[in-house]
Design goal:
With 341 residues, the protein is an alpha/beta fold. It has helices at residues 11-22, 39-48, 62-71, 87-92, 94-115, 149-167, 201-210, 237-252, 273-284, 308-314, 322-339; strands at residues 2-6, 26-30, 53-55, 77-80, 119-125, 172-178, 180-182, 216-219, 231-232, 234-236, 260-265, 271-272, 290-293. It is built from 11 helices and 13 strands. The structure holds UDP-4-deoxy-4-formamido-beta-L-arabinopyranose.
Length: 341
Amino acid sequence: MKVIVTGGTGYIGSHTIVDLLEHNFEVICIDNLSRSNKYALEGIEKITNKKPTFYNIDLCDRNATLKVLQEHKDAVGIIHFAALKSVGESVEKPLMYYANNIDSLLNVLIGMKSFSIPNFVFSSSCSVYGNADELPVTENTPIKNAESPYAHTKQIGEDIIRNFATVNPIQQHILLRYFNPVGAHPSALIGEIPIEKPNNLVPYITQTAIGKLDELTVFGNDYNTRDGSCVRDYIHVCDIANAHTLALQFLIDKKNKTNCEVFNLGTGNGVSVLEAIAAFEKVSNKKLNYTIGPRRAGDVVAVYADNTRAQQALNWNCKYNIEDAMLSAWNWENKMQELKL
Ligand code: WQD
């Protein structure tokens, strides 16, 4: 069966394509390479010995998008990753984020409707919850104001899909809300390739450890948590990837009760920044150069998932823990240096 993956040369997209190919899907990958590296296709082939069909097009170009979707209207589904995802950049350039993330989604949905492509899996985020009052976060946790334009584009995207689903019973949708994706494929042949200075904790840790960055600043250790640093639900990217394959199969098998289902993708375990650093030091056998600095604006104190819905409905289970994630991230950082990526 054929599946279209948008944003497929990106971090989570490339890992998901590996999982899909390993489950014998034929993959059509669409990406404009604006925030990713074409090397991902090479890494995918090295791991799976299979090549996705690749289209370098911008999904904000409606005609180009409709042309590719028409060409592959026999696809069983679309997994839509393509979006800009830097929280900080979205605060500085909100119009670019609203235009890119929403126009691209609209064009894909218009194409789905035009060519009756039946199944849609949307890359959403735990950031749609805003500063959640209750922990762990469930799919019914009330949605609060987004903390950034990036998070707001994910809230808007979910609303667009929900309203589309209400009046279009042919299409079946799943929204996957990721917590904090980390790590890399165990082969160290694909992983996250930060375009500029990393925003997120784990690439910041590995770049500090390898000497690309001088030191890591821990943004605050005076929070009301067990060790004073913020708590997050760090989930291995391969566990996230497998959840996409299972979500698509769930729709293909028509196991969904409504045509717009939501699932949290997290481990269910909260890990603090200092605990994440300790896990990295343990698996890498490297002492990390970090200092404690001031809190970062916009950070929530703690957020982690209740993932029972995804476990039960999708028959999905996390195979990796924080130490596996840190080791794979470190191995990938070393491989990037070798590949000069
Ligand atoms: C994690 C923790 C920081 C860097 C982001 C997006 C969210 C989602 C997941 C897409 C925080 C601390 C970080 C550093 C630090 N992405 N930190 N020093 O902010 O939880 O979530 O990624 O959907 O939308 O917002 O991830 O990795 O930036 O931060 O102390 O140099 O690490 O304060 O507590 P975050 P992060």
